[in-house]
Every structure is written in C-alpha cells, then in structure tokens.
Amino acid sequence: MSKDFCPLAGEIIMEDLQTLRCTITGLTTGQQYFVQVSAYNMKGWGPAQTTTPTCASPSNWKDYDDREPRHKGQSEVLEGLLQQVRALHQHYSCRETSKLQATGRKQSVSRSLKHLFHSSNKFVKTLKRGLYIAVIFYYKDNMLVTNEDQIPIVEIDDSHTSSITQDFLWFTKLSCMWEDIRWLRQSLPISMSSSTVLQTRQKMLAATAQLQNLLGTHNLGRVYYEPIKDRHGNILIVTIREVEMLYSFFNGKWMQISKLQSQRKSLSTPEEPTALDILLITIQDILSYHKRSHQRLSPGLYLGYLKLCSSVDQIKVLVTQKLPNILCHVKIRENHNISKEEWEWVQKLSGSESMESVDHTSDCPMQLFFYELQMAVKALLKQINIPLHQARNFRLYTQEVLEMGHNVSFLLLLPASDDVCTAPGQNNPYTPHSGFLNLPLQMFELGIVACFT
Questions:
Q1: Dihedral of alpha carbons 385, 388, 390, 393, sign
Q2: CA distances from 242 to 142, 154, 246, 294 (A)
Q3: Which domains, from first to last, does the chain contain?
Q4: Cβ contact 204:223 at 8 Å
Q5: Apex CA 144: angle with CA 142 and CA 150, to 5°?
C-alpha cells in the first residue's frame, strides 16, 4: 500500500505462465495499491518491474458520480406486493381445502369418474379453424405423444380473432406460474366476463388446466416465442419442456421424433400444410431454440448491440439464433467490473467529436481498455454486417453499465438515435447476415429473467 513496498500487503507466486494474468482478491475499495512483478529462473529473482500506472484503486463505475442503485427501493415495493399476493393465495387455498373436506367421498368419486369420461377432456386429433395449445415434452430424440400417436393438443377457442398478439404475450407469462393456474382461474373477475379479452384469457386458463389434468403435471415448460399459423385459420401456441428421463405421463407414451415426423408426412397434404404439419416440419429448429435459450454467458464484460423494430402491435429486438436470450454481443474481457477511471474515460469518449480526439496514447492508463473496446467494436460490427464507415454515428450507452448478474456486465453500442428502432414501412439500413432473429420484446425479457435470476 506504499511506494517502497514496506510492509508488503501480499504476494503471489505464479508457476503456470500459460496465461499472463493474475487476480488479486481481498482488496479494499478506494485504497491505493502498488504492484511490482519479478521473474525467476535457476539463477534467482530478477529486478522488479513496476506497473503502468504506478498505482491503482479498486473501484466501480457507480463511484464516478456517487449514484445510488437504479433499483433502490424497488425490491422492497415488489416484496410488499408479493406478500399481498401470497396472502390472497393462502386465503384461496384455505377456502378450497375447507370445501374439499366438506364434500363427501362418494360425491368426489362420482365427479372424478365423470371428469375422466367427459368428451371435452380429450386431446385434439385434427385441427379445425381455432386457437390451440400444443405441448412438447422431449428427452434426447424422444417426444411425448398421446396414445393415438399425436402431439398433446387441446383447443382454447374455436372463434378467435385474427390478431392474438396481446393474448399470446399474456399467455407467455403463465409459464412463470404454472402451479397457480387453478388460483388464477378463481381470481379472474367473473362479473366482467362479458369482456372479449377476459373471455379469451379465461379460455386459455381452462385449456391450460385441462392439459395439466390430462398429462398429470403442472409444469408445461416454456412458451415458444411465436405462435404457429396456417392458411386454414389455425393457430398453435407451443410450450416446450425438456425432461431429465423418460417419465411415465398420464395419457401418453414416448416416441422417436423422426418416427412421428414420418408418420405425419404420409398423412398430410404438402400443398396446404396445417399448423400441426408446420410444427412437425420445424420441430428440430424449435427444440434447438429452446436449448439455446437456456444458455448463460460466461463471466466477463461484453459489448452488446441494441437494435429494435416495431410493428402495429409489438416491438422486436435483434438477437442471434445461437443465443436468443441475449443481445448480439462480443466479449471485451474476462473482468466484468468497470472501474471508476474507465467509466470516466467512457464519458469523455461519448462527449468528444471523434475517437481520435481522446487521449489513448501508449502511456495513457486507459490504453489497454481502449484497445479492448476498439477490438470489440470492430468484431461486433463485422458480426452484424455493418461496414465501419457506416457506424460513424454509433454511440456507447453512457447512462449505466448493465449488470446482468452472475458476474456478467454489458456496455451497449447504439445506432444513431433515428435508427435504434425501425418503424413499419421504414427501410432498415443495417441488414445482418443470416443467423439472427427479431424476438418479441416480452419474450426477450422472459429469456433474460430465466437465465440471469
């Protein structure tokens, strides 16, 4: 902690020099530290070399303007709301338990038998014009099918409107609370059931509960990012779940995916494929998306590219097919922390007319950070197929560093303000290579929540 290294605050001997990096732990924020390095061979230790800069203080980007965390106080508010929901949920559970205890055993058995044989509580075999839920449970190359060798499908509504975007996005949130479907059905305001929106959502909850009963499990997996539609007026909402082993499910058996595809191919008409045909044709892409959307980035500092496009009823964000739960990105370095000095340099960079006007000479303390960031920008622009000269008006987002959790941090690269979000009918001046998706913003948010919380 002093220039003369007396007394020593610590020392590390590195014998494996494959990686010329060393992590010093247990440091105190704001304390100045001096470091020197000596090499050793059979003749002994060589003279110590000092660092550039000569000293440094552990810091974080938030120290730059002593800002308070953006989410300060929000967790307490959310916790209060959660407690209210739990209280209502507990009240409902107690009320339902007392109802069940008051019901005679004979009546329960009678109702259960009627429930099993009721015609409405069966899987759909053929699609007519309607809105449906399809469930894909898979293990390696096997997939759960009904006893009639069909994908488990139930009908939501046979008279849906052509646009279901908002209802679909509402349904995706159910994947975070499958176990609460019964409570949600009870909680929906029956007095307002004349509302078309509420009617559709009540039907979604009823169909979900029906699937859970038929399969004997609450967990239906995660919702695929877009419904599957055909020209016959059918819409399939698909949920996907990978199981750890070949469990036995009610009303189901396991079949190889290739066998199911070949069986369906012999029955379908390729000229006008139904939504079910499209589902089976694209099943490998759907499963690949599901697997990749669960992958988490390794710790480090990343540079991400934010590009949106809007339509009449939703906003979509550009992601890669390889990692659809995160923005297009490249890794800057292994250390996820942005220091106070580095963040100050970023602020100066954003305020300058050009990058050339910023001091990044060899003796500048930020020279290494500048080089890492420069390489990352070039690699990211190459990935999204944007020539360097077209990116002169691109900017770094300087309001904050995005801290995703699990030691993953992001700096954001933004297009010019007019090009961040492409409006309907507007030509996108930046067309990336193949291998990208425009993901609905709500689906992107759910992916972030699933991977980083």
A1: positive
A2: 10, 20, 10, 11
A3: 1-58 (no CATH), 121-294 (no CATH), 300-351+364-452 (3.90.79)
A4: no
A5: 115
* Pairing relationship of beta strands 253-256 and 142-145 according to DSSP bridges: antiparallel
Closest by CA to 250, choosing from 140, 322, 147, is 147
- Considering the chain, what percentage of its residues have pLDDT values greater than 70? 85
The CA distance from 36 to 46, in Å, is: 12
Distance CA 89, CA 381 (A): 49
The CA-CA-CA angle for residues 331, 337, 343, to 5°, reads 95
| 178 has a pLDDT exceeding 90 | yes
3-state SS of the chain: helix, strand, coil percent to 5?
35, 20, 40
Taking residue 33's Cβ as centre, other Cβ atoms within 10 Å add up to 16
pLDDT by residue (tens digit) across 210-251?
A: 999 999 999 999 999 999 999 888 999 999 999 988 877 777
Q: How far apart are CA 171 and CA 197, in angstroms?
A: 12
Length of the chain: 453
Task: Tell the residue number behind the tokens 């007019």, with chain if given.
Answer: 418
- In which residue are the tokens 């009240």 written? 91
Q: What is the residue-wise DSSP string for 267-307? A: HS-TTS--HHHHHHHTHHHHHHHHHHTT--PPSEEEEEE--
Cα distances (angstroms) measured from residue 264 to each of 125, 257, 274, 366: 12, 11, 11, 61
Tokens matching residue 162: 């052509």
